[in-house]
Amino acid sequence: MDNEPVVLLSKREIDKMRQAGGLAAELLDYLAPMVKPGVSTLELNDAAERWTQERGAKSAPLGYHGFPKSICTSVNEVVCHGIPNAKQILQDGDIINIDVTPVVDGYHGDTSRTYFVGEPSPVAKKLVEVTEECLMRGIAAVKPGGRVGDIGAAIQDYAESQGFSVVRDFVGHGVSRIFHTAPQIPHYGIQGRGKKFRAGMVFTIEPMINEGTWEVEVLDDGWTAVTKDRKLSAQFEHTIAVTEDGVEILTLHSELVNA
Ligand code: MF3
Ligand code: CO
Ligand code: CO
What we know:
Elements: H1 11-31, H2 41-54, E1 58-59, E2 72-75, E3 78-80, E4 95-100, E5 102-104, E6 107-108, E7 111-116, H3 122-140, H4 149-161, E8 165-166, E9 172-174, E10 181-185, E11 202-205, E12 208-210, E13 216-218, E14 225-227, E15 233-235, E16 238-242, E17 247-249
Antiparallel strand pairs: 1-5, 2-4, 3-14, 4-7, 5-6, 8-12, 9-10, 11-16, 12-15, 13-14, 16-17
Helix pairs in contact: 3-4
The site of 2-amino-4-trifluoromethylsulfanyl-butyric acid has 12 residues, from loops.
């Protein structure tokens, strides 16, 4: 997907992306209070699907390259692409990433957060806090004149300074009417390398940060990516637009935008 040209979106298209992104953020807010011990990941999926349909939107993951559900639910050692399942019941102390992508008027709002189920262990709490800070540092690295490598360098420096590792096998991506397109956005790398930022570029930043090794493997279901050492992994994701003077986060709850 990285040989494709990077398409710059018009102001009108970025407005559309902001609408989809705002709905995605609202969906994550809606799901938050349901994340409790005893709930199954399928219940979260079904609530998300219903909520999305009620708003006239579609769930991009459903049927995407054969993905069987509407959201990804990635618990503990699952790095990403966890499949919601009725038999998977959340337990006190788990961490769960919920990744949603509603499609509004053809445009994709792609965002995820990692939630605590009950009380986290100290290491889980630190991993989740560091991962969210990695996302925010990655976003802050998007500046006029900069390059894509600045994002990965900022994330990797911070994650590794805290004793954690950065997943290499999954990257951020251009997103618009297409779910996954150029450019690729690695969450590791070297400052000053890679494509130059241009106003109108729209892509995700979605660091997956591991407690132990950065290496992952994919389970026999063909989707679920887990840490090779089965230690914890956390992730946060926003869709952002490069602007003339910096960066705009498109996956914020609309009532909070410009607040
Ligand atoms: N939302 C994921 C991302 O951030 C992609 C999920 S693809 C699926 O890119 F098929 F697993 F749903
Ligand atoms: Co994404
Ligand atoms: Co996502």
